[in-house]
Amino acid sequence: MQPLRLILLPGWGIDRRIWQPLQAHWPAHLTAQAVDWPGYDDTPPLAANATLTELAEVMSESLASDAVWVGWSLGGLLAAALLEELPPPRGLILLGAGNTFCATDGVTSGELNAFRRAFQRDPTATWQHFLRWQAQGEPSSRQAYRQLGDLLGDTLPADITTLATGLDWLASIDNRQRLAAAPCPVVRLTGEHDPLIGPAQRRASELLTDVGHCPMLSQPQALAAAITHHATQMASANMAVL
Questions:
Q1: Looking at residue 95, which CATH number applies to its domain?
Q2: What total number of domains does the chain contain?
Q3: pTM confidence score
Q4: In the chain, is it the N or the C terminus that has fewer CB atoms within a 10 Å radius of its CB?
């Protein structure tokens, strides 16, 4: 049987180090690889105003079709958008990611636009505000914010152009049609206290109890178990079709 392989994709303003707390909790039969989007850590950035097609060209080797993709937050939005640009994976797990980032019952377009203006004025302070915002739904938001700081440090993990492009994608990506006709199994996992996700998206998801947007920080063992469960089911379904 083909080994179970995960590709773990981080969100806006955060690189692959966000997945480190899960490393000790993956079962032996599974291989999990966290990858960065272009412009993060030491990966070359895309040009300003990059398109999803250009992103797909750069990510084509990392986003292998023999794996289950796990996309968190913006990483989930991008992974879903790339389903029509790349050969589909064995399955897609969306963690803390809806069809769109903005929603009338969640983060509104006005709130995101205000955030984008603040980012233009002071990128580092706005990024740190976003980290605090993400941590709010965890059982101990202060501890989760400290964990983010320990993982990421206090400097921006990507260049300004890369981060600004990510905010553009948060504002513009709409995956409703893509996910309605997805070429692979899709599972949505959402923390029941996620401050970035509205009630409608929660109702469309399997809820992760007692966590917010960052369950990899507050409940890494439970999150790894949930991802493993769904990825195993996806891989089994693939084998049944063959």
A1: 3.40.50.1820
A2: 1
A3: 0.96
A4: C
